[in-house]
Specification:
Blueprint lengths: L3 H10 L3 H14 L4 H13 L3 H14 L4 H12 L11 E5 L5 H18 L2 E5 L34 E2 L14 H5 L13 E4 L5 H4 L14 H12 L4 H14 L5 E6 L4 H4 L3 H11 L8 E6 L2 H11 L3 E2 L20 H15 L4 E5 L3 H9 L7 E4 L18
Parallel strand pairs: 1-2, 1-4, 3-4, 5-6, 5-8, 6-7, 8-9
Helix pairs in contact: 1-2, 1-3, 2-3, 3-4, 3-5, 4-5, 10-14, 14-15
């Protein structure tokens, strides 16, 4: 277990502002009145010129530790600091691919969309060749699955970029430099550049604290933010909805059905509890009306076999690519990457038509199903904490790949 306060202090000294911020917030998640963490967030806010927030954090730190002269001085400095002013004209946030699983990439997009709203920027997506779900054409892979988020294209953008490694000539390329910068959401506050490029994971819980008071999600929950963003921005392409309709009409129409998700493939290497949780998922289905069919979402033939052995022909599954090893489907060399993405979407959007869902909270697939629909109470069960609530602190601890 990392000692969070020393980590945060070291990170800030090396200009890892995002890592320092997340460590401080993790402290406050457990101890909301921790004076040191509050003071550190005040310093971070001042560093990114969020002086109103800085003043608030210093004030809260003084409330927890009255009489601290250094905190009082910093509060006065934040109060008197000139607020940033920017040139008029539209600003943009280019949301690049994160480069991992499909619904992990969508989670990144949603966090970046909230960041765009928090900073007054127009969102523009570009999933390039480093996306595991792009067909490698000279186009935006995101738009293989969803309608555009705005009517702006990369060609429409001005030539003023942040981070400075980006420019008009390399905007479609991807390098491992994102792991050297690890530019989390805090870096994008109060930037004067017209174009900002977000290619490192934008965890939505790390955007929420920086929302301006006038934003409709200010003070709301992370779950509320996901509901707001998915309903506002995620508009599946017509052909994906048509594929969902065709499968539904053939296999599921006419009666309520249940859905379950079992993780497999490379997740057997990543999650030491996966076997136990998969068994919990199967056990939860024992309570489903035996007249109902069960749509099983899984990328692993071994999981599908287990479910069919237990529930027989009640199990329904889409005809998608699956693995029979501990290698993820999106890392297999065969097949069309874009088709893999479409299959991931079809499964999830079919699940939203079910009466009941059970899945693994640390799975992006299951967690996204939980927020893409306003499920009636008790009808959506995530085993464990939702990964969408995670601040992704590990990304600031691990070595670059």
């Amino acid at each position: 277990m990392v000692d969070l306060l020393p980590f945060a202090i070291r990170a800030l000294k090396t200009n890892d502002v995002a890592g320092a911020e997340i460590a401080a917030r993790l402290i406050l998640d457990q101890a909301p009145d921790d004076a040191a963490a509050l003071h550190l967030l005040g310093v971070i806010a001042a560093k990114v010129k969020a002086f109103d927030s800085a003043e608030d954090y210093f004030q809260r730190a003084l409330g927890a530790e009255p009489g601290n002269s250094r905190t009082a001085q910093n509060r006065a400095a934040a109060r008197d600091a000139p607020r940033p002013r920017f040139a008029e004209g539209p600003c943009y946030l280019v949301i690049r691919e994160w480069g991992f699983g499909f619904w992990s990439d969508i989670s990144h997009v949603l966090g970046a969309l909230l960041l765009a709203e928090a900073t007054g920027r127009i969102p523009v997506t570009w999933w390039g060749t480093q996306s595991l779900f792009s067909n490698c054409s000279d186009g935006d892979g995101f738009q293989l699955y969803f309608q555009p988020l705005s009517d702006v294209s990369l060609q429409d953008l001005p030539s003023d970029f942040f981070p400075p490694r980006w420019n008009a000539d390399n905007l479609k390329t991807t390098t491992q430099a994102k792991w050297q910068e690890r530019a989390g959401p805090v870096y994008f506050l109060n930037r004067p550049e017209r174009v900002a490029v977000c290619d490192f994971f934008a965890a939505l819980p790390n955007v929420m604290p920086w929302l301006p008071p006038a934003h409709p999600l200010h003070g709301q929950t992370v779950e509320a933010a996901y509901h707001y963003l998915t309903s506002k921005y995620l508009r599946p392409r017509a052909e994906i909805i048509a594929a969902c309709n065709a499968f539904f009409d053939k296999e599921l129409k006419g009666a309520p059905f249940a859905v379950a998700h079992m993780r497999g493939g490379d997740k057997f290497l990543e999650d030491e509890n996966i076997q136990a949780v998969n068994q919990q998922v199967l056990s939860s289905l024992d309570g489903v009306n035996p007249q109902q069919r069960i749509l099983l979402l899984t990328d692993d033939t071994r999981c599908l076999t287990m479910a069919r052995e237990r529930f027989g022909n009640r199990i329904v599954a889409t005809d998608c690519q699956r693995t029979n090893s501990n290698k993820g489907v999106h890392h297999l060399s065969m097949g069309d990457p874009a088709q893999t993405g479409r299959e991931a979407m079809i499964d999830v959007y079919l699940a939203l038509r079910a009466a009941r869902f059970t899945g693994n909270g640390i799975s992006n697939v299951s967690a996204m199903i939980g927020v893409l629909k306003d499920w009636p109470p008790g009808s959506c069960t995530l085993l464990g904490r939702s990964i969408l609530e995670d601040r992704s602190f590990m990304l600031y601890q691990k070595k670059a790949p």
